[in-house]
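Priority: medium. Attachment 1 of 2:
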């Protein structure tokens, strides 16, 4: 493995993935990028006070800048994480399309020209109201009702096209909701599953923006990062799907998440005030069939709901310096 470029490196997935890539390939082999400039050394979990020289300003809409960086750093793999998420995408649909589709097109064209390996994160947002809600198969109806979902379907089709038309080694996962303690959530419909932990520890109260019975596929960040690494490290012949693999770990409702948190914080109270994100969540599936990922490259999740809640509360309580005084287990 030569040098890796990570676009959108300061987002939710990028922050943890960069640390894992640094650990696997060495800090000097991982170039982070994003739209905002950095002017001083900054923290990377894998390398304390990671030097700003491993970061470059990059707007993925600027193909020339992208290709200049590919040549300057002799990049041979791109983890393309830059994008606008679901809730923000509904508020800024033009920007969502431009960044998520035109930005991906620039990256795919660059991967074609320079013969690069590419990771693209898709999402359960590709599914829609006519998709089977339970055991959602790998090949099924994709009729999303959000601009974010539309961009992800388009992205999957572009990836499939570039793989089969030009031989680009592009690999993708349809990620579920990601739960992480590293950085605050950034505008997704599944953000309630992260926000709730901060609120439970700080205030013992949370107002959830989806109904208590809303059930969605979820995954803990360590599983998500491991899935990306395992997918990208798999033998090329094992990758049978070039659009995007279904992948999941656990499905739970908002109420089930609350109940599990209350086992540690019995005085935690959650009420519900569904907003526009409820309609988005309702259009998504509840449980995903990821048997193709398991069969093709050996995917297996490690964290179930109790394990996620236990580790999230432990990690966040340390970061926020809030002891778990009311632990009930």
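Attachment 2 of 2:
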């Amino acid at each position: 493995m030569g040098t890796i470029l990570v676009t959108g490196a300061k987002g939710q997935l990028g922050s943890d993935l960069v640390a894992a890539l640094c650990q696997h390939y060495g800090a000097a082999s991982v170039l982070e990028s994003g739209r905002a400039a950095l002017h001083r050394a900054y923290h990377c979990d894998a390398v304390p006070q990671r030097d700003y020289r491993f970061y470059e300003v990059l707007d993925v809409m600027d193909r020339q800048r992208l290709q200049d960086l590919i040549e300057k750093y002799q990049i041979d793999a791109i983890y393309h994480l830059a994008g606008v998420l679901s809730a923000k995408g509904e508020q800024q649909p033009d920007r969502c399309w431009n960044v998520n589709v035109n930005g991906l097109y620039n990256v795919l064209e660059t991967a074609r020209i320079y013969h690069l390996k590419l990771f693209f994160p898709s999402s359960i947002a590709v599914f829609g109201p006519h998709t089977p809600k339970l055991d959602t198969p790998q090949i099924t109806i994709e009729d999303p009702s959000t601009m974010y979902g539309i961009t992800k379907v388009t992205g999957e089709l572009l990836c499939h096209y570039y793989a089969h038309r030009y031989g680009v080694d592009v690999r993708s996962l349809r990620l579920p909701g990601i739960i992480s303690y590293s950085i605050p959530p950034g505008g997704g419909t599944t953000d309630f599953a992260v926000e709730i932990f901060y609120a439970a520890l700080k205030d013992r109260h949370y107002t959830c923006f989806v109904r208590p019975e809303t059930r969605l596929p979820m995954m803990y960040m360590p599983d998500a990062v491991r899935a990306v690494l395992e997918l990208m490290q798999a033998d090329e012949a094992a990758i049978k799907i070039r659009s995007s693999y279904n992948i999941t770990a656990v499905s739970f409702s908002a109420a089930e998440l609350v109940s599990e948190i209350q086992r540690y914080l019995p005085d935690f109270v959650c009420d519900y005030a569904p907003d526009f994100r409820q309609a988005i969540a309702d259009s998504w599936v509840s449980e995903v069939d990821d048997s193709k990922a398991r069969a093709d490259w050996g995917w297996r999740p490690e964290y179930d709901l109790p394990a996620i809640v236990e580790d999230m509360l432990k990690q966040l309580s340390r970061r926020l310096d809030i002891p778990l005084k009311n632990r009930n287990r």
